Structure formats: C-alpha cells, structure tokens
Amino acid sequence: MIEFRDVTKTYPDGTHAVRGFSLVIPARQITVLVGSSGSGKTTLMRMINRMVDPTSGTVEIDGQDISKIEPVQLRRGIGYVMQNSGLLPHRTVAENIATVPRLTGVPKAAARARALELMDTVGLARELADRYPSQLSGGQQQRVGVARGLAVDPNILLMDEPFSAVDPIVRDELQQEVLRLQKQLAKTIVFVSHDIDEAFLLGDQVVVLEQGGHIVQQGTPEQILAEPANDFVATFIGADRGKRRLSVSSAASRGDDRVLVDAGGYPVGVIAAPGGRLSVASARVGNASPKSRSVSNKTDQAGDA
Ligand code: ADP
Ligand code: MG
Nearest 5°: phi and psi at 180? Predict the structure, then answer.
C-alpha cells in the first residue's frame, strides 16, 4: 500500500504543482491518476520513487516513510515506465531491459536470460533481442519499456502516460496487455493518464485530478460513471455530451454483469462482475451488443448533441 499524507510540492520557481494531497493506493491493484496536463500527475508519481521529494507531507510505502529510505534502494522495488519509452538508443533491446539488473551486479548471461524471459512476458518476439530501439515500432518500444520496468521484479510499477504516443489500435493492444499482465503478476500499479477512457478501462481505482493535484473524485469506474461528482467530472467523462445520465440498470442486467444505461434506458455498457471491469458498447442506441472496448460514451455521440 502507498499512502500520501497531506503532500504539497512547490517547485523552486514557486509553482505549486501539488497542494495538500492525501490518497491511499491499495496494493496489487491498478490505480489510475487521470487529469489534464499540468494537474500534477507526474509530480505525484515521481514522489513515489523519490525522483521528486515533497515540500511538506509524507509518502509512505507499507507504513514506512520513504524519505527515510535511500532513493537507490527504494527504486529497486519500483519499476518506472515512461511516456516515450526512455530507451537508450545505443543499447540493444536485451541490454536496455537488463540495464538495472546489470547495475545491481547481476552477471551478464543471467541478466540476458532474464531479459529474454521478460520479452516473453510482455509479448515481444525473442528475435528482436539484438535490435536497437530505432529498429522497433512505437508499440514494440513501449513493450520494451514495460519489460525494463519489470526487470527488477518490483512490487510497485509506475506508468506515466506510457501509451499516449502510440496510435490508437496499438494503444488498445497495449492496454489489454496491461490487464493480462496484471492478472498474472498482481503488482501495485500507479498509472497516469490524461485519457478517461484509458482510466476507466484499466483502473480498479480512478482518481480524477484538477490543477494542483486537487482530487475532484475517486472511486471505481462504475461509481464515477454513474455519479459524476460535479460538472468538471461530468464534462471530463463526456457524460454531458450525449445529454445522458448514466445509471446502473438492474432490470437489464444478466447474471452478475450489470448493464449501464443512459437516460433513455438504452444500454451503453456492461460492468462485468466480479472485478467491476467495464466494457462498453461502442455502438450507440439501437445496437445493444457490447464490444470489448473502453468507455466510448465520449466519442460516439456526435449525433446526440
Ligand atoms: P502533469 O503530469 O499532470 O502534466 P506535472 O506534475 O508535470 O503535471 O506538473 C504540474 C505543474 O508543475 C505544472 O504547472 C508544471 O509546469 C509544474 N512543474 C513540473 N515540473 C516542474 C519543475 N521541475 N519545475 C517547475 N515547475 C514544474
Ligand atoms: Mg505528466
């Protein structure tokens, strides 16, 4: 478990990136911090591995104040995946993945063997092991970035908008890959996104942020969709665009799955039990068959407004 207690970060130039932020991030779940650019997401994430230290307040991991832990030691338990993969251009895929294990003294052959295993884990063909990053597609580079994040076998994985630079189809694949990986690995994942669809797809817990790291709403995707806390959230999730109020229909629900309906009673999505995973019909009114897609009430409503 990660806990932020009344954390504030003011950068030396006086920018108040985060003010009075408190949050519990449960172990072995995916928590998504979602908000527009400049809302303090990256700052919050970097306070977990001490790339940034708070101006006041504390961050605890499993009850321990991390300001008392050496950054290098702390980071051994925390993987970090960056937006533009952050791969070293003059190192091969396998060398990139093995970078941190090598730094911590793992012998070359063992580090390479582990890198190859991690390539399997993230769905990369082993044939790519000796290529350089520039010889990979954007999606493959991001997979290498994820493999590198996993290389120290961390309990915590920080992912800062890792898929925002890849095209939508590849992004869909990578998101599904994260869900599959999480089933297998059950890490504590903190995922930063500016994309609410991505947040709802991946998050067990979604935290909607405004400027200054102000929490506007936190909860499961289901809770936030069904009851946006205020206009900011409603606009952000696009609930106002189709002029619909989403609710959970018991009548339309089958078995343990619950069906989300709009104000007209039309199904717009299914929340599959027991994990509360959301899949949403990408088609609108008239087509009730849900596809396994992220929440699309924002994007498919052109005709409703
Ligand atoms: P996000 O990741 O949500 O886009 P950031 O955490 O990167 O937000 O930034 C939050 C605010 O802090 C922004 O106003 C940004 O310009 C500012 N900021 C971020 N890093 C620095 C820094 N090193 N020095 C000064 N201001 C910064
Ligand atoms: Mg950021």
Answer: -65, -45
Q: Which listed ligand is nearest to 44 at the C-alpha?
A: 1
Task: Report the predicted TM-score, pTM, of the whole model to 2 decimal places.
Answer: 0.81
Residue 38 to residues 16, 26, 44, 197: CA-CA distances in angstroms? 10, 25, 11, 19
pLDDT at 111 over 90: yes
Which of 9, 16, 37, 43 to mutate to test ligand 1, by most ligand atoms within 8 A of the CB atom?
43
Task: Give the pLDDT band of residue 230 (cuts 50, 70, 90).
Answer: confident
Question: Is 40 a pocket residue for ligand 1 (Cβ < 6 Å)?
Answer: yes
The confidence band for 152, taking pLDDT boundaries of 50, 70 and 90, is confident
Nearest CA to ligand 1 atom 16: 38
Q: Is 20 in the pocket of ligand 1 (CB under 6 A)?
A: no
Which residues are within 8 A (CB) of 300 and not within 5 positions of it... i.e. 6 or more apart? 282, 283, 284
How many angstroms is it from 74 CA to the middle of ligand 1? 23
187 near 154, Cβ under 8 Å? yes
Give 85 or 230, the one with higher predicted confidence.
230
pLDDT tens for residues 173-215? Answer: 999 999 999 999 999 999 999 998 899 999 999 999 999 999 9
Atom of ligand 1 lying closest to residue 39 CA: 3
36 close to ligand 1 (CB < 6 Angstrom): no
Strand-by-strand arrangement of the 2-10 sheet: 16-25, 2-10, 56-61, 64-65
Average pLDDT over residues 85-112: 92
Say how far residue 163 (Cα) sits from the centre of its chain: 9
Distance 188 CA to ligand 1 centre (A): 24
Tell me the CA end-to-end span of the chain in Å, nearest whole number: 42
